[in-house]
């Protein structure tokens, strides 16, 4: 998330209840990031406090997914942003809803399937962003990626889901 400047939000992230997301191959993007965060020492699974650098990286990855400049986004919506590390798979997981600000292109990218983004990043690798807003929503929805059950439990999301309830 580093390098997004004013598009990164400085609000505090809070978590809330369960949800059900999904993605398809055409809704995946990767973006290179600076490796500013080290995995937790215990090797377990834990919630992490999101930093401004994390926010900037997630906004950049989601913007790249939709071919929209990261500067077109105000940041991440507070209360709908999650970040955790899964020690057994050595993977960071994040979920976020983007705040598109006044850019029409950014606003359109955050509708429907793009209304929620799921991210994962193996330690030392790049963030992979996936649109999961319509995951599991019948014929028009995509499939949900396999989020570890330990991450779902940390975030209080339902089993087999990939976004918070209500999104």
Structure overview:
With 167 residues, the chain is α+β, with helices and mostly antiparallel strands. It has one domain. The chain is built from three helices and eight strands. The protein has a six-stranded antiparallel sheet with strand order 1-8-7-5-4-2. The protein is globular and about 45 Å long. The model is unreliable at 1-35 (pLDDT under 50).
Summarize the structure.
The protein has one domain (5-155). β4 and β5 form a beta hairpin. It has helices at residues 52-65, 104-109, 149-155, and strands spanning 28-31, 45-47, 75-76, 82-86, 91-96, 98-99, 117-122, 127-131.
Report the biggest beta sheet as strand number plus sense, adding barrel if it closes: 6 strands, antiparallel
The gross shape turns out to be: globular
Strand % is 15-25%
Strand tally: 8
Secondary structure tally, helices: 3
Note the run of SSEs as H and E.
EEHEEEEHEEH
The N- to C-terminal Cα distance equals 23 Å
Low-confidence stretches: 1-35
Q: How would you write the strand order of the largest sheet?
A: 1-8-7-5-4-2
Helix content: 10-25%
Structural class label: alpha+beta
Overall tally of domains: 1
User: What is the mean predicted local confidence, pLDDT?
Assistant: 72
């Amino acid at each position: 998330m580093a390098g997004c400047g004013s598009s990164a939000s400085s609000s505090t992230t809070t978590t809330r209840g369960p949800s059900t997301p999904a993605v398809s191959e055409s809704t995946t993007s990767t973006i290179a990031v600076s490796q500013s965060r080290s995995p937790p020492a215990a090797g377990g699974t834990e919630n992490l406090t999101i930093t401004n650098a994390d926010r900037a990286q997630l906004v950049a990855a989601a913007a790249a997914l939709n071919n929209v400049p990261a500067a077109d986004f105000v940041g991440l919506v507070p209360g709908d942003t999650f970040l955790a590390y899964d020690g057994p798979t050595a993977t960071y997981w994040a979920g976020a809803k983007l705040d598109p600000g006044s850019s029409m292109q950014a606003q359109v990218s955050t509708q429907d399937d793009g209304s929620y983004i799921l991210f994962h990043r193996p330690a030392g690798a790049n963030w992979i962003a996936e649109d999961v807003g319509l995951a599991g929503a019948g014929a028009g929805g995509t499939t949900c990626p396999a989020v570890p059950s330990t991450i779902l439990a940390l975030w209080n999301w339902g089993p087999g889901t990939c976004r918070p309830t209500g999104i």
